[in-house]
Amino acid sequence: MPTACAPGKIILSGEHAVVYGAPALALAVDRHMRIHYRPDQLPRLSWHAQERTHVLGLDKLASLRRRLDSHFERYLRGELPITRILQKPAELAFYAVDMARVLSGLDIHPRGSLRIDSDIPIGAGMGSSAALIAALLKLFGHFDRLDELIRQVRHCERLQHGRGSIIDAAAVCSGGLVRVQGERVERLTLPASGLGAGYFWLFTGTPACSTGACVDQVRRNFAGAAIWDEFAATTAALEAALLAGDSLLESVRHNHRLLTRIGVVPAPLQRLAEQVEQRGGAAKVCGAGAVSGDQGGLMLLLLPEGMTPAQLPLQPDWHWGVLKEDPQGVRILED
Ligand SMILES: Nc1ncnc2c1ncn2[C@@H]1O[C@H](COP(=O)(O)OP(=O)(O)OP(=O)(O)O)[C@@H](O)[C@H]1O
Ligand SMILES: C[C@@](O)(CCO)CC(=O)[O-]
């Protein structure tokens, strides 16, 4: 039974700004989306995720894809909000399966059942949608080049993110540390010592608004603003420090202030960042953040030596882990 596995990602710097051409850095992390495929002869594809099963007749796959493409066109014309392109989460998976078939020039649809097994929180800034699509394209498509796979993951992901950037696709496909600017994707190498000690991710709950909705709201308020140059300078400083093995404290703090100014850091996360800074650390939202509600998805914490997030006043439903790189990117696992 073939299994595809794709890592999640965390954006170290430049989220939102990357949509306007500024550079951004993302790291593939050791949380994974695994999709197990069991072929059979029935004329349908079934999809098992989170104790729910969705079944689609093979004859419906192409019409679903065409319907979603036309929804996206309507979104671009301002006739449909981003949240209405996909009507059910499973549609994204069926779309990616059919795109894999079309892009690989195959006439025959894959038959069988797909089972998802993922420890990437959904809608939290850890790239679950990109990981899902990357795993499906890897399972059912044939891509000779990594850049082509990245481009196609992004193409499918537009149904979820609207006018988003290529950063999530780049990180989950290539693995390790990536730098993205516009359409350009570059793989960077961390120093031999890796990220170093003191880096954690903190999950503060699924935001009330999706990534696509946050991107659209920020676009409405800040599309032509000069603040993106400040983001670009911060990302450049963070990259230089990261590659030299220096402390990221100042650039993460500055990054947090910029994200707060564009309105994607909910109040409880601002309070936490303040407490972290008072104790000599730094914290920032990673990914889209949230433009409404108290949950902001994922945060990056950089804590002083010997300290862990357990020593912070966290809300009971928040959870955290040590930040660890996955150097590999999407792959097929041997049985
Ligand atoms: N474990 C899963 N089971 C089923 N569908 C999933 C799963 N993980 C992701 N998805 C799909 O991805 C969508 C979530 O995409 P969204 O872009 O909102 O979040 P994300 O990718 O986790 O966050 P971000 O893009 O900010 O990093 C879901 O609605 C669903 O279509
Ligand atoms: C918020 C954003 O910058 C990152 C989402 O993971 C959106 C994007 O780049 O598509």
TrEMBL record:
Signal sequence extent: none
Top-level taxon of origin: Bacteria
Keyword NADP (UniProt): no
Alphabetical UniProt keywords: ATP-binding, Kinase, Nucleotide-binding, Transferase
Enzyme Commission designation: 2.7.1.36
Listed InterPro entries: GHMP_kinase_N_dom, GHMP_knse_ATP-bd_CS, Mev_gal_kin
Enzyme class: transferase
Segments passing through the bilayer: none
Localisation: Cytoplasm
Domain GHMP kinase N-terminal intervals: 107-176
Predominant location category: cytoplasm
A Pfam short name: GHMP_kinases_N
Gene Ontology molecular function: any one: kinase activity
The keyword Nucleotide-binding is assigned to this record: yes
UniProt similarity note: Belongs to the GHMP kinase family. Mevalonate kinase subfamily.
PANTHER family tied to this protein: MEVALONATE KINASE
The protein's name: mevalonate kinase
Organism: Marinobacterium weihaiense
